Amino acid sequence: MPGVFTVASREFSDILRSKRFIILVAVFSVVFMVGIASIYLTVLSMAQGLGIAMPTGFLGRAASVVASSMSYFAPIIGIALGCDAISGEREKGTLRTVLAQPVYRDTFISGKFLAAFLAVSIAISIASIVDVGGSIAILGVTPTSDDIARLALFVVFSILYAMSYYGIAILLSTISKRTTQSVIVSVTLWAIFTFAIPIIASLVAYLYRPISGIEIIQRQRPGGNATRPSPEEMRRIMEEMRSRAAITQAINSITPNYHFTSIIQYILNTSVGLMQGMQGRPNVSLSIYQGLASAWPHILVLALVACVTLIASYIIFVRQEAR
Amino acid sequence: MPEYVIETYGLTKVYKSGGSMVVAVDKLDFTVEKSSIFGLLGPNGAGKTTLLMMLTGLILPTSGSGRVLGYDIVRESREIRRRVGFLPEGFGFYEHLTAEQNLEYIAALNDIPKLERRKRIEDILALVGLYEVKDRKVSGFSRGMKQRLGIAQALLKDPELLMLDEPTAGLDPEGSKAFKDLVSKLSKEGKTVILSTHLLFEVGPLCDSIAIINRGRIVVQGRVKDLVSRLMEEEGYKIHVEVRGDAGKLATALSGLDYVKSVRMEVDGIHIDSTKDIRVDVVKLASELGLEISSLRVEEPSLEDLFIRYYKGEVV
């Protein structure tokens, strides 16, 4: 174990001092602040337009922007830390120098994991603190104890999410001969998960389950038949939409992004909130326990992705030879 | 009975490369005596690096066994790396750290007590001539400076045995001389030093014993002096003589001697190729002919001759 801490301590201080890490945390902190400011301006203009007072509450407004920013930030920080973790050391020859000492290969990679976990935790905590501080300063709201608890869970699951991408990146770094290779594959994979899969999922759902109810809805348009959809037709439309959503979800569920978004929706109640608050309807929000109970399959998948990739990197690295 | 720091028995390493098998080290049996400077010589790709990696436990052998300082190279590799200072080929340092910070990390990995670290690092940096630049980032170091830092990391644990893979690569003549002086000094202190290189002229003259390795096999191994004698016996003696007076008369007389294969007259004197050391006969003949010998010597084969001869596999 002392060897693990020695490796972790050197790695951790390297990460914290690296320009890459500092720039990423700074850029995302700014993005979070800008997001909160834009929420403030939107809410202000909507409230003025509707002639109502500024709504109160905390997470309902800030959470959606935090969640969407974090869904980009966490994978990027995970990939940035993992993509050259092993291949970079191999290329620079530092792996040989370290392994020429009385250090086992498992000690080395465990130290790397530990350092990355600490660095990811710090980065996400900083970004979240900036967000909370920004929300208090810009939106003029005070978080309740429930908000703080939800935010703490949000930080925990964001770390888990970042570690799942770190696991993917370090696995690629372990099996790649060159860092450029692992960077390209990691970023491509992230882009596929983030942008391509949701589009593909919608397309597949559209092709497999076209919504016949569209014609019924079109009847309501000027020039169309003014007959309202019958209860039977409405039931069919709803069924088709549910079926379509199921296909989309099934395809999206191969990505860590989907599971993170789902967890955050349950924990932060981002699917309720702003608009309901604006329209004067009560927030039908889940309690923290209810949220966790609903989110547990997604938490499990995210934890599995992180664990499986980290364990695979560990096994592959330990079995590799320092040629 | 010599004490060995390294013993290997049938040590073999086969790499899988694509669909084919490459035998990097082939049933190697060899030993290294304690407190010697041992040269592992061979061309690039001969198997030297693979051998050193196996001896330090960084690569597992395909078959065979070996012991380093009495420890098994497979089961007790950590103990070996604790006691052996190893400079691997293609090593590197954390370039954003200073020389001292890099050595502090290496010291921590070797469990060197914190109280001892600072002094030991400073002493080693002074020994390799990097003390003045200890606070400079390694990214600003020349190749030679990095090489010296590599030697410093190998020495940091005060090892009983040093294994240096291509240690003079990148060193300028001054650095190379300083390195040789350092190796001689370490050997006098009782440390065993293994120098693996294809640059035999750089380190060969330092070595007490050598092994020439090619295609994963040791072609020849032994003390340099014994190998030179053996080569002279097998290849013949080259004797050079200079006389005052009529050298032609002596050359003619020498041609008639038994064991003499050829005699050549050249500007610098007479060159004799013989199957035996005939220096006594030369002196006798010169005296009989009334000639005064100004120089008489046997031209010993150089390390280069040894390398080329054994490397080509002409003598095994």
How would you summarize the topology of this molecule?
The complex is a heterodimer of chains A (323) and B (316).
Chain A: H1 2-17, H2 19-50, H3 59-82, H4 87-92, H5 94-99, H6 105-139, H7 145-175, H8 179-208, H9 213-218, H10 231-252, H11 256-268, H12 274-278, H13 288-319
Helix pairs in contact in A: 1-6, 2-3, 2-6, 3-6, 3-7, 3-8, 3-11, 6-7, 6-13, 7-8, 7-11, 7-13, 8-10, 11-13
Chain B: E1 4-17, E2 20-33, E3 37-41, H1 48-55, E4 63-68, E5 71-72, H2 77-83, E6 84-87, H3 99-109, H4 114-127, H5 143-155, E7 161-165, H6 173-188, E8 192-197, H7 200-203, E9 209-214, E10 217-223, H8 224-235, E11 237-244, H9 247-255, E12 260-266, E13 269-274, H10 279-288, E14 292-298, H11 303-311
Helix pairs in contact in B: 3-4, 4-5
Write structural notes for this entry.
The complex is a heterodimer of chains A (323) and B (316). With 323 residues, chain A is an all-alpha fold. In chain A, 80% of the residues lie in helices and 0% in strands. Chain A has one domain (2-319). Chain A has helices at residues 2-17, 19-50, 59-82, 87-92, 94-99, 105-139, 145-175, 179-208, 213-218, 231-252, 256-268, 274-278, 288-319. Chain A is globular, with a radius of gyration of 23 Å. The two termini of chain A are 26 Å apart. In chain A, 41% of the residues are buried. The model of chain A is unreliable at 272-283 (pLDDT under 50). With 316 residues, chain B is of the alpha/beta class. Chain B has 2 domains: 4-228, Rossmann fold; 236-301, Alpha-Beta Plaits (2-Layer Sandwich). Chain B is built from 11 helices and 14 strands. In chain B, a hairpin with a 2-residue loop joins strand 4 (63-68) and strand 5. Chain B is elongated. The A-B interface holds A 2-3, 6-7, 10, 14, 17, 92-94, 96-104, 321-323 and B 15, 53, 56, 58-60, 78-79, 81-82, 86-88, 90-96, 105-106, 108-111, 150, 153-154.
